[in-house]
# Entry
Amino acid sequence: MSSTEQPYIDPSEIALEESTVQRFKSPNDAFWTGIRDAAGAPAMVLFAGMVGFGAMGKTNGFDVWFTTFTSFFMFALPGQVVLLEMAITGSSVIAIALAVTLTSTRFITMTVTLFPQFHQKDRNRSLYASVHLLAMTAWAISMREFHAIETRHRLAYFVGLGLLCWLISIPGTILGFYLAGLVPPAVTLGLVFINPLFFLLTFTEVKPWINRIALMLGCIFGPIFFLVDRDTSLLTSGLVAGTLAYFIDRQFLRKKAGVIG
Amino acid sequence: MMNTMSSALSGWGLWIALAGACLGTYFCRAIGVLLSNSINQDSEIFRWLAAVTYAMVAALTIRLIVMPLGLMATVPLWIRILICALALGVMVSKSSKRLVPALLTGTLLMVGYGVIR
# Structure
């Protein structure tokens, strides 16, 4: 994933830019370039993640429909894994919905940073459909490329990018699901390991200290709350560790402590 | 694995949970579109939300690695931690563009362990 230059979840550090460069002849051109830009290392990592998710679904006893619908309608790997894990441990529907929604709040920040960069004429109700294509991969590439794309072609580029990422995630999930039943257990083991490892690796790219502290505290509180009450542990450890990190940052780390915008 | 499944959500409860998860996820995307005209990305609420999200993903990740359910639980803890450490080593060995090699290292080591055990 091209997140090497991008923070993983928090886009607040990136400045919005304007572009004057003439790069595409038509929206069609921009759309197909978006598709081409997605097809590479970023899409491969996403595909691997979806294969891993399919394998997780299979090895934990879910059916192929449930597993695939999750990729199709959620299209957000951390949230999908949260859903699987909490369903396995028998958490309540309310706790699952809340925890998944909280992991998805990163989409609010992603949208707020990306969508103002579209041309004014594109900023209408159709964005409520295109926004489903927004995920980490498409967001990171768009944030990197948009400054070099004229505003009126940015939406077409983004849709091409997001559409490919979304569409490959479906066969990826199905492939992972059936592979996990066919291949030797050793390979299944590798597939199931992809997502936890991927999340862990992306943590090393997190730059702001508030988020690094949140990660460290999450690693400490996660297992503790899991032992106390596994049903709500993700929710409670996220809220407690995240809030604690926020206050540590606010009290001790900010250069202008006490000046809150 | 059967033990974990017996306590799992099943039938309609599972699909209702999926529906709730999908609605919650779409809600966050939609609210982003709604707010994208008016809100400052540096505001306090976003800083807090980002911290909560990171903490939650960290709690999830550490649990998947340290206290996994199902197949992964058959791998000894020290093997899981060793493989993670080696993959992280590959990841930080150079300052950029190491995600794919690091992911491959970890995954192949896990497959390798599965083959030789």
Residues 1-8, 257-261 of chain A have pLDDT under 50 and may be disordered. Chain A touches chain B through 116 residues (CB under 8 Å). The longest helix of chain A spans residues 151-182.
